[in-house]
Model the fold of this input.
Amino acid sequence: MDHDMPGMTMSPPLASSGDGGGHTMMGSSMAHMTFFWGKNSEILFSGWPGTRTGMYVLALIFVFALAFIVELLSSYLQRAKKVNALVRTLVHGLRIGLAYLVMLALMSFNAGVFIVAVVGHSVGFLVFGSRVFKRFCGDSDKAGYDNRVGC
Done:
């Protein structure tokens, strides 16, 4: 008795690429599904950063900057109480879009990307969200900031 359905074929088994990286299936590379260390990964875009160390470092700086900017925009939204609702909505949309980019970068499962994303958010919070640096305090009434938040 044949249990195969017409038109249905089994895909070939996955074969290890042998380089310690991902697995290949019919010549195409599949993404990692566990954290790994190494500069050979794809972050956000196909083929980027590739296999060059300099491009990997640039990708890490980019992810750090994205996470840092997310914290800057979060702080702005908390402090800017007198700003137009449309501006607040646009800043919120930008913040969410950048946060999703950080999340997509983390989906590369590269441990270096994970570390710089956490450090970027932490440093951004230290600078903009904590009371360690009171950069936006002082003349906050002129800029539309609420003096009671974070100052």
